[in-house]
Amino acid sequence: MSAEKARAFVDISDVVCPVTFVKVKVALEELEDGQVIEVLINEGEPIQNVPRSLKDEGHKVLKIKNNQDGTYTMLVEKGGLL
Amino acid sequence: MAQVDYAELKKGGFMRQVQAGHFSLRLRIVGGQIKAEQLRTVNEIAEKYGRGYIHMTSRQGIEIPFIKLEDIDTVKQELAKTGLQPGACGPRVRTVTACQGNGVCPSGLIDTTSLAAELDEKYYARDLPHKFKLGITGCRNNCLKAEENDLGIKGGMLTEWIEDQCNYCGLCEAVCSAGIIKVDQDRETLTFDKSGCNYCGRCVKSCPTEAWEGKSGFIVYFGGLFGNRIAVGRQLLPIIFSTEELHQVIEATLAFFDKHGRASERFGTLLDRAGWDLLEKELQEVFS
Q1: Number of structural domains chain A divides into
Q2: Measured distance CA(B197)–CA(B128) in Å, rounded
Q3: Residue A15 contacts residue A47 (beta carbons within 8 Å)
Q4: B206–chain A Cβ distance below 8 A for any pair
Q5: Dihedral sign from CA coordinates of B117, B103, B59, B273
Q6: Closest by Cβ to A62, choosing from B169, B174, B207
Q7: How far apart are the first and last CA of chain B?
Q8: How many whole angstroms separate alpha carbon B155 and alpha carbon B241?
Q9: Which residues of B touch A46 (CB under 8 A)?
């Protein structure tokens, strides 16, 4: 979906808050700062809350793609805001 | 036994119970918060003078049921020692409710806790033709149901896009609750139909590059009811940014109710009878 190369992928479209953010956090643990993860996330509450929490913890959303099926694919750079 | 003035007792938060000589004591709670130390006193009073339990009211209040008439003065004194007071009932301004606001909640757009304290100090228990409820909610999620109050306040945010900062990631489009932001990632353009903005502030909260800036304000709703009649409060004014203006609006609203309201007539019912435009006109005078 973009030039940024994702090192990892996590699907949080099958879980609900607060597991959504926890699952992304756990996946980010495996990466180094500057590496990118692709996240499959539901519209509605998850897309409103998870990116905001990522921002609070210093991770940067690089790109969001609407998959037109109730989900988004989101690229996040670990520590991109630090 | 001496004559009991129930109206006077009720004014001081003692609600007459089905059981003769017993009262459910309502406490003055502000914005749904009580100190742990005060809660300890509530606990002691409930055990010593009540029946060992409390009742939580629908609007963030606490009542201690089964207080005996002869214990009322002692209970008042014990409450006063820890800074607690009986709450207001009857035809006056009631408990000011509030969510936790931006001091605690990541979604919050305004400081609901200090605003609740301010409103409580200025307006609590002010005599009016009928009960009058003030409530504050920190954002569009509306946990504290702004529109069900006689006057409800909702946190909002007027936002501005800063082109230089934008990385066109598309997140603001995804979170925008009004659907008025369109991002073209390939062409690196963004359009924002400001006239459709509902001040939810989600673009500001989520933007990873600080490309959205916001100014917090208050959206005010009038005439809500959630009792015998149910009515959704209406927004009659544009978003307000200063607390001074907010207080002017509240003062003007209470003065309007006092002047035009009939006994036992809720504010929303008065507006239906006298005309909403009458209030609108008086509110506009506040700003002219």
Answers
A1: 1
A2: 36
A3: no
A4: yes
A5: positive
A6: B169
A7: 57
A8: 10
A9: none
A82, part of any domain: no
Q: State the Cα–Cα distance between residues B257 and B275, nearest whole angstrom.
A: 12
pTM: 0.93
A43 within domain boundaries: yes
Q: Rounded CA gap, B219 and B102, in Å? A: 16
Q: What is the residue range of A28's domain?
A: 6-77
Q: In a mutagenesis test of the A interface, which of B171, B181, B200, B205 is the best target, namely the one with the most A β-carbons within 10 Å? A: B171
Is A1 inside any structural domain? no
Taking the CA of residue A55 and the nearest CA in chain B, the distance in Å comes to: 6
Note the ipTM here.
0.91
Model confidence at B1: pLDDT above 60: no
* Residue B80 CB neighbour total at 10 angstroms: 12
In degrees, to the nearest 5, what angle opens at C-alpha B132 toward C-alphas B129 and B137?
A: 165
Residue A18 in any domain: the answer is yes
Nearest to B246 by CA among B140, B112, B130: B112
Confidence bin at B3 (pLDDT 50/70/90): low
Q: Residues, chain B, total?
A: 288
Tokens for A1, please give them. Answer: 């979906």
CATH number at residue A27: 3.30.110.40
pLDDT score recorded for residue B78: 96
pLDDT of residue B173: 97
Cα–Cα distance, B248 to B169 (Å, whole number): 42
Q: What domains, with CATH codes, occur in chain B?
A: 6-81 (3.30.70.3340), 97-154+216-287 (3.30.413.10), 157-215 (3.30.70.20)
| Chain centroid, CA B103 distance in Å | 16
